Amino acid sequence: MYKMVYSGVAVSFFLGILIGALIMGHLMDFFGRKEAAVIVRSSLGIICGVCLYLSGTFCSIELFIVGHFLAGIINIFKVVLIIYAAECSPDKSRGLTAMALGSGSFIVVLLVTPLCLPNYLGNDTNWTILPALCAILAAVHLTIALMFPQSPKHLYITLHDKEKCREAILFYHGSTADLGDVEEEYEQERLYLQQGHATIKEVWNNKTLRRSLINISLCAFVPAASAINVKSQYHAAMLMSFGMTQSGAMFAIMLILIGGAPLCVLAPWLIERIGRRPLILMVCGLCVGEWALLGAAQFIVDMKLQYTDLSSALGIAGSIMGQAACMLGLLTLTAILISEMCPHTARAAISQVSQLIPIVFAMITVLLYPMAVETVGFMFNVTMVIISSTLFYACYAMIPETKGLPVDEIMHKISRVDHPPARAESSEELISRATRYGSMDSANSYDEI
């Protein structure tokens, strides 16, 4: 019974993610990028921290579940935050900006993790201080972020406010930004879908948008099928089952987080250096390796081989691979692709649909993990290795490179997969097409897709 209640509390987090995915598209389009990413997300962060603090003060499991539920909504709304940041950034630095957000989150977690040790705040007496600190940080973030302008793309394409759009461009791109070129790019993105906010049906009926949706959904499934969801609820218990003590498991988790710091600094540079596609494949490979090593550790436990040092080492090695994947963009790459692989008016629908099935899959995985380990043991890991390997191959076969390209050029690139040219373009034709970028001829060419 206790394990079912424990699993239920864990699943409440993913239920929050599911509800958040259902509402974030509407909020993005009709409430605004900044409002959804900053005001809603930070306000929920304050409420979440208060609920968790009061749950400890009054010994209320109900408030604890509500806090976990709100934390799930906050987690999925990070997608909106990354889309907002990417829309505010120049094309050449979209990936860097989005990755920097992920790196900033990691630095905060890294600073707080030592406080979670049992000798400090990770005990029955003092743990409520942690959610109180989170509520304070959310309030600080809300206060500072309110001073930043709205997304210039949202101002231009959705609100049709060119004056505020120019002010936002100068704020985010710098005073030397060429307003004419940036507005031409926004205009081409607007012309791709002129009927307003795209519905899910319209996305599916458009071959190019449908392929974008499939590509983004594949990328969204990678973290859902990784071990990060199980570890978010059971990491310490998992390492302890491999033979470690509670203090040893917490200390190992802290060292793993610290060990990921160099990749945290490297990732924003790496995504603009090697591109999105190689990074996605690298992350997929690390997820496969993590499940394999955790499965090997679980095999030793299942067979009662009494090699606790080896099983602990394998568990830590697998966790290191998972942390490396996280630092390289496991939870960020999907949002980056949403901001790059679909036009502004289709982002809300695509971001909503692409998240739903992976979220449900992650919820089921977290709910079943304790019972699965007891019944089938390491075969659970084998199943996840097979799923992750399949995703690796699918990403390798389907996801194109989008680094540094305007959204309308990326859409053209995706459309050429569905409609391959009868003959290869000559270099002169490629140059000619590049010089048409931003012209009405370029826009009209998309109507033929």
Give a verbal description of the structure.
It is a multi-pass membrane protein. It comes from Steinernema glaseri. This is MFS domain-containing protein. Keywords: Membrane, Transmembrane, Transmembrane helix. By secondary structure, this protein is mainly α. α11 runs antiparallel to α19, α11 (about 205-225) packs across α20 (about 405-420) and α15 (about 275-300) runs antiparallel to α19 (about 380-400). The chain has helices at about 1-30, 35-55, 60-75, 80-90, 95-110, 130-145, 150-160, 160-175, 180-190, 200-205, 205-225, 230-240, 245-260, 260-275, 275-300, 310-325, 335-340, 345-375, 380-400, 405-420, 425-435, 440-445. It has two domains: about 1-150, MFS general substrate transporter like domains (Growth Hormone, Chain: A); about 200-410, Growth Hormone, Chain: A (Up-down Bundle). The radius of gyration is 23 Å and the shape is globular. The longest helix is centred in the first third of the chain and has 29 residues, at about 1-30.
